[in-house]
């Protein structure tokens, strides 16, 4: 299949693109390039990469594609909290615009990268796809708005799918240091301690980025009646773990102590997710990773490459990079690029 992947130059995209290519698909990327040069390895380059903003996409840009995988977004709560209106512009309006032009161009399938964070304050018990949404951040709210707007476009010719990912982990050429498993492992490598901001009691649903890629691949090729306008939680029960368990495993692998930030207490973001639907409906999604193996992978890559404090604290932190692009005038207040970012050569 010929697939347009937006956000192909980000953390998940840099792993998903080669994964799709290995499965025989022809991939074209579309990305604004916010993290160009923020490299933790050589990002894939052996495919057509278009530089542009999804909010400017036109139907003629999407002609001839069999599917769109829409990853491009303001990808976390801290940026969303900093600039909520831009988060809605990119994540909600931009996603719905992308779906509209895809439909106009006759693209039959649209895979939207959503998030379990749209469930928000979900209460007790694991949340399934039909749970109510109680997002607690602009980021979570932006995913709710995007799903609603895209869903209104579903018809006989256009099948959107909402893949609600758990929090990702794993090594990528465009590594992120601001997500929990990567962060705790990177803290051990660069600071010699596994520093917890809470008492470590909360439960977190996690998923390796290669398993996210597996879920998208399964949704790409599944029969239409199984996926048409359907939402799927993406993750697995074995990867729903307490932060404390992640920290203890990182400490074991790196021989660094677990420490607690001043005032570390209970964290109210504590929720669990039900993954039975994706397992039942998309049997090709068979997760192959686990958090302990992911920590081994991250630790090996971080030590082999010599992860620096600057990379860990700034270059691989999405909020820090977006702030720098804004401060230097290369991103405007609505997060439109005004100039290409400086590309920093990696050793
Ligand atoms: N990483 C996670 O833990 C996680 C969990 C759940 C959902 N998701 C979702 O998966 C998707 C990808 O996440 P990620 O971790 O790879 O994020 P990322 O920040 O690493 O990558 C996002 C990419 O999108 C691009 N982009 C942003 N706005 C754009 C625009 N307006 N036009 C074109 N390109 C634009 C950026 O340049 C970047 O390359 C996002 O939609 C995110 O919300 C991620």
What is the strand arrangement across the widest sheet?
Answer: 3-2-1-4-5-6-10
| Average pLDDT rating | 93
**Number of discrete helical segments:** 12
Top CATH class: Alpha Beta
Which class do the helix and strand fractions yield?
Answer: alpha/beta
Which ions, cofactors or small ligands are bound in this entry?
nicotinamide-adenine-dinucleotide
Distance between the termini: 35 Å
Q: In sequence order, what are the helices and strands, one letter per element?
A: EHEEEHHEHEEHEEHHEEHEHHHH
Question: Based on DSSP secondary structure assignment, what is the total number of beta strands?
Answer: 12
Helix content: 25-40%
The CATH architecture name reads 3-Layer(aba) Sandwich
Sheet-strand content, in percent, reads 15-25%
Report on the architecture of this protein.
The protein has 347 residues and is α/β, with parallel strands linked by helices. The protein has a single domain, classed as Rossmann fold, CATH 3.40.50.720. The protein is built from twelve helices and twelve strands. The strands form three sheets. A seven-stranded parallel beta sheet has the order 3-2-1-4-5-6-10, with helices on both faces. A three-stranded mixed beta sheet has the order 7-9-11. β1, α1 and β2 form a beta-alpha-beta unit. The protein is globular. The two termini are 35 Å apart. The mean pLDDT is 93. The chain binds nicotinamide-adenine-dinucleotide (NAD).
Topology:
Elements: E1 2-6, H1 13-22, E2 26-31, E3 48-51, E4 67-70, H2 77-82, H3 84-104, E5 109-115, H4 138-151, E6 159-165, E7 167-169, H5 180-191, E8 194-196, E9 203-208, H6 209-221, H7 224-227, E10 230-234, E11 240-242, H8 243-254, E12 258-260, H9 276-281, H10 291-305, H11 309-315, H12 318-327
Helix pairs in contact: 1-6, 3-4, 5-8, 5-10, 8-10
Bound molecules: nicotinamide-adenine-dinucleotide.
Nicotinamide-adenine-dinucleotide binds next to helix 3, strand 5 and strand 7.
Organism: Luteipulveratus mongoliensis
Protein name: NAD-dependent dehydratase
Domain NAD-dependent epimerase/dehydratase: 3-235
């Amino acid at each position: 299949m010929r697939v347009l992947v937006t956000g192909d130059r980000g953390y998940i995209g840099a792993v998903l693109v080669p994964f799709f290519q290995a499965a025989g698909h022809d991939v074209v990327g579309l990305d604004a390039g916010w993290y160009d040069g923020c490299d933790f390895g050589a990002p894939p380059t052996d495919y057509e990469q278009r530089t542009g903003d999804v909010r400017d996409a036109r139907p003629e840009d999407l002609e001839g594609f069999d599917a769109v995988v829409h990853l491009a977004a303001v990808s976390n709560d801290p940026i969303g909290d900093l600039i909520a209106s831009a988060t809605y512009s990119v994540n909600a309006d931009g996603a719905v615009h992308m779906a509209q032009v895809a439909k106009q161009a006759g693209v039959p399938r649209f895979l939207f990268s959503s998030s379990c964070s749209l469930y928000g304050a979900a209460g007790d018990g694991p949340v399934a796809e039909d749970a109510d949404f109680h997002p607690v951040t602009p980021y979570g709210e932006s995913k709710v708005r995007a799903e609603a707007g895209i869903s209104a476009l579903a018809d006989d010719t256009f099948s959107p799918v909402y893949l609600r990912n758990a929090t990702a982990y794993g090594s990528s050429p465009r590594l992120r240091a601001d997500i929990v498993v990567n962060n705790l492992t990177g803290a051990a490598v660069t600071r010699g301690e596994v520093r917890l901001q809470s008492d470590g009691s909360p439960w977190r649903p996690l998923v390796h980025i290669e398993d996210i890629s597996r879920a998208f691949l399964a949704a790409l090729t599944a029969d239409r009646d199984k996926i048409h306008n359907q939402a799927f939680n993406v993750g697995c029960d074995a990867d729903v773990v307490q932060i404390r368990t992640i920290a203890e495993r990182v400490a074991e692998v790196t021989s660094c102590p677990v420490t607690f930030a001043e005032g570390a207490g209970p964290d109210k973001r504590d929720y669990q997710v039900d993954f039975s639907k994706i397992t039942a409906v998309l049997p090709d999604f068979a997760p192959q990773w686990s958090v302990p193996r992911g920590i081994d992978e991250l630790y090996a890559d971080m030590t082999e490459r010599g992860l620096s404090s600057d990379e860990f604290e700034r270059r691989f932190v999405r909020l820090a990079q977006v702030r720098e692009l804004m401060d230097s005038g290369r991103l405007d207040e609505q997060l439109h690029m005004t100039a290409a970012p400086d590309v920093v050569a990696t050793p």
